[in-house]
Write a structure and sequence with these properties.
With 97 residues, this protein is mainly alpha-helical. The protein is built from six helices and no strands. The N and C termini lie far apart (46 Å).
């Protein structure tokens, strides 16, 4: 995590705004470069699957094994449910018209 000692604040930021947390990790730490070899895959993860990418960045520097894959899969499900929830609420707004 960031070297300023504000890990809890960063965890809350990651839970609420994962894209901002990834960008801050990309700027202020080397965790993204340790987790991914190139530039394209983390950028696509930032755009399409921010929670899964954030969880992968956090667990990947030590290697992803067993339980860590469950965290990445949980992040994937968070991303999918956030997209599904947005489309559901959009459908409700459309039905009200």
């Amino acid at each position: 995590m960031p070297c300023c000692g504000c890990g809890c604040l960063f965890a809350i930021l990651g839970a609420v705004m994962p894209r901002v947390a990834i960008v801050l990790m990309w700027i202020f730490t080397d965790w993204v470069s340790r987790a991914f070899d190139g530039f394209i895959l983390p950028l696509l993860g930032l755009i399409f699957l921010p929670y899964a990418t954030l969880f992968y960045i956090v667990v990947a520097p030590n290697g992803v094994n067993g339980f860590e894959w469950l965290l990445v899969i949980f992040g994937f499900f968070l991303d999918i449910t956030s997209y599904a929830g947005g489309s559901f609420s959009g459908k409700q707004e459309w039905d009200k018209r």
